[in-house]
């Protein structure tokens, strides 16, 4: 039977359960930080099953479900082609309409463990002008190591959104890209890290927007940017995932 | 007795009860999304009683009652001329001062199942300039299929607000109209759908406002707008009313 | 003994208790509507004791107390010269630093039953330019009947703030004045009505600010303003104090 | 053993406990007032142990811990060189990455009892232009006695941030400095007073930003600024620490 529940080892099952819980809970951070309205926005997290990552899975939000109704059980498990894992919990629902873009990122960036997409106000405002956000505040140097880049205009329906994200972020310090006329996508080592990037990209998009409204900005010297980024990524925090 | 409670079938009573509950609850979404202050704003929902719709009723908010005090029981049942149904629950209160506009829309647009009016900040800002919101972000193409149009200047007292809404939205993809110097009215297949449109119109009004403050916007090609609108309306979501 | 509790009739005591409760609770509306930070802002309500009003009292917030700690018991009872009523409940604390201005208004405008002062962001922004808010949205015509006027620059220490408020609002439809470089003061028939005016003046200050940022505004014809104001003040609502 | 818990007198222990509780709780005010996102921002409070202050300690937030998880027990006790007090409660965690700047301030300004740092939006916007905030609203004259000054560009890694704060604020009425391209640091007689300054600096940064967007600002005469500052600092409030 093609719709039988997949048989995973207990360890894999536990990992899937943990990531379902994380992804469901992290959607609440999008609301709390004012990044989304109605059912917009989505978070996903990779389930690591294979050394090179090519046989991994990921967990993502269902399509069109209210934020109040998101639970670990209705998160959706997909393979790296973006297909729902037949028979898995929640597999009777459709995944987020942005699933193909998330899948493309996981397929081509094995180090990425989480992906987030929102239509947060100020990040979208820069995207509607196709303008990168200049690195003029130290928090941006810490977190993104330079400007936030713009990705190409691409619409849903093929791989062009995913490819735009991957092409823009590969080799770039930034974990955030502003897809032109569309909005921010962020990546991270896990779903929480990608959500942090989504929160921070809106914060810097808003701050630099207002800063520039009122007059010319003072650039930060490149070597100071490099030093801030290096220190923040490598020195601070309680552990590898708790920074500042 | 002219004030006797109307005698509806059990099925109609159940439908009225369900719509009272929906309309009361959906007013909370206006508050939660920051679209209203004090007692401003109103939501209504059609009670379908007749095939062509001409003998339908609708449920609307009472006038001047605090959002904390709205309950299914104090919602008000009106006929399509905007008259309170004599003897119905809550009929001792006056309905929203915008009732005539809602009634006009239900009378002339039988497919409409919900109407919402707010004075949300950025939508009113575009309305005070009499300027339509250009379609420069993909979320707007998805949801509205093009620009948000402006309706005529019209004041309370006759049918001119309702007529302005109907004339502007008839044959238009947009479910939202910005009535000049006044504010947004939105329609939908039911009250929830109209509330979603009210949330989204403020979201795009704010985002495009900020985008344009800082420089020229990149237009989205018409064929991409068409493709996004078509896909969003027809493909995504868990069912006909859950999209994205 | 000069600090003995005053001897009021039971009816007056009940009225004072009711106004203490109203004034304490209404401060929560300032927070909920984002009009104040820290301990800024103040609401007062008149206790009507005399036909012409000249022997009335009023209840106001204590100075420098956190919004979380405001209770009916720590509101302060003052006479119309702004002196704390000796021996009354809470009279061991100092009243709001704006008490003299409230007292001046009650002394000179016997019809006023409530006064509110805030430093809400956009109302203060217009005040810092000394610029009145033009009446370009229908909600403003409804509520204020025209533009929001600016009062003179005046600082704490004598009657100049109170006099500026009274001189500006006497004979004006608006219940709100923007004191130059300072902020809005609003009046009403009771404390709740003045709080509503404080909420609405910030709402229109913000909306018209953003509207004008992006281009020229369309004026509303004076006769339409007159018609909207007349209707809103006289026709709508459940009773004299519940409008829209 | 170098990691033994330090032996403080009962009185000092009680003082440390009280300041741990204050500092933990006051971080909640940063969230409530919208000054911080994610784990950004930090509050510290001095523990007074010595007459001249040179042997004092201070309590500060741990690095990279979520605001929901801050408790008195995980606040970190440091000496005035910014070193964690070995063996003290919470000393297994790293203190805020801004600890060195706080320590420098406490070392060089013995009257300072609290320090706060945030990346609040509008304060950072002024900082990114290196522009002081002009004193055009009376609330600013009350609270800061004049403009909010800008400090030098300085990055983490040596004493340059702390020195920039101290050099800018020494002899200045303002309790807030905008460190260029970075953000606001505020000081106060205790942690609560510094948090109040952080709240007020963002409030005035936002208000003056919007005021100036729309046209020229009216200056406040210097003698009025002096009078307002003097009165607010010396006359109002319930006691020395409750003002307005």
From TrEMBL, chains A, B, C, D:
Cross-referenced Pfam families, in alphabetical order? Aldolase_II (PF00596)
Which cofactors are named for this entry?
Zn(2+)
Enzyme class of the recorded protein, top EC level: isomerase
Q: Where are the transmembrane segments?
A: none
Which NCBIfam families does the UniProt record give? PRK06557.1
Q: Which UniProt keywords apply?
A: Metal-binding, Zinc
The record ties this protein, via PANTHER family, to: FUCULOSE PHOSPHATE ALDOLASE, L-RIBULOSE-5-PHOSPHATE 4-EPIMERASE SGBE
Query: Biological process GO terms, please?
Result: pentose catabolic process
> Which family would the database say this protein is a member of?
Belongs to the aldolase class II family. AraD/FucA subfamily.
Ranges of residues in domain Class II aldolase/adducin N-terminal: 21-209
**Could you say which EC number(s) this protein's record lists?**
5.1.3.4
Top-rank taxon: Bacteria
What name does this protein carry? Answer: L-ribulose-5-phosphate 4-epimerase
> What reaction does this enzyme carry out catalytically?
L-ribulose 5-phosphate = D-xylulose 5-phosphate
One GO cellular component this record assigns the protein to is: cytosol
Query: What molecular function terms (GO) are annotated for this protein?
Result: aldehyde-lyase activity; L-ribulose-phosphate 4-epimerase activity; metal ion binding
């Amino acid at each position: 039977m093609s719709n039988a529940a997949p048989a995973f080892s207990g360890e894999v099952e536990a990992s899937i359960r943990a990531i379902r819980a994380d992804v469901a809970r992290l959607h609440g951070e999008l609301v709390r930080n004012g990044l989304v309205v109605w059912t917009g926005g989505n978070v996903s997290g990779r389930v690591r099953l294979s050394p090179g990552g090519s046989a991994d899975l990921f967990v993502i939000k269902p399509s069109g479900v209210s934020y109040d109704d998101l639970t670990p059980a209705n998160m959706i498990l997909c393979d790296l082609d973006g297909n729902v894992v037949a028979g898995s919990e929640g597999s009777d629902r459709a995944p987020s309409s942005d699933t193909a873009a998330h899948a493309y990122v996981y397929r081509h960036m094995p180090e990425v463990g989480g992906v987030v997409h929102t239509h947060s106000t100020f990040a979208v405002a820069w995207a509607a002008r196709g303008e990168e956000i200049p690195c003029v505040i130290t928090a941006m140097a810490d977190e993104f190591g330079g400007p936030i880049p713009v990705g190409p205009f691409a619409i849903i329906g093929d791989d062009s959104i995913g490819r735009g994200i991957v092409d823009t972020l590969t080799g770039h310090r930034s974990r955030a890209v502003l897809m032109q006329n569309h909005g921010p996508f962020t990546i991270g080592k896990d779903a929480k890290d990608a959500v942090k990037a989504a929160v921070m990209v809106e914060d810097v998009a808003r701050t630099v927007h207002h800063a520039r409204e009122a007059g010319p900005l003072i650039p930060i010297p490149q070597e100071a940017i490099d030093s801030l980024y290096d220190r923040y990524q490598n020195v601070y925090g309680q552990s590898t995932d708790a920074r500042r």
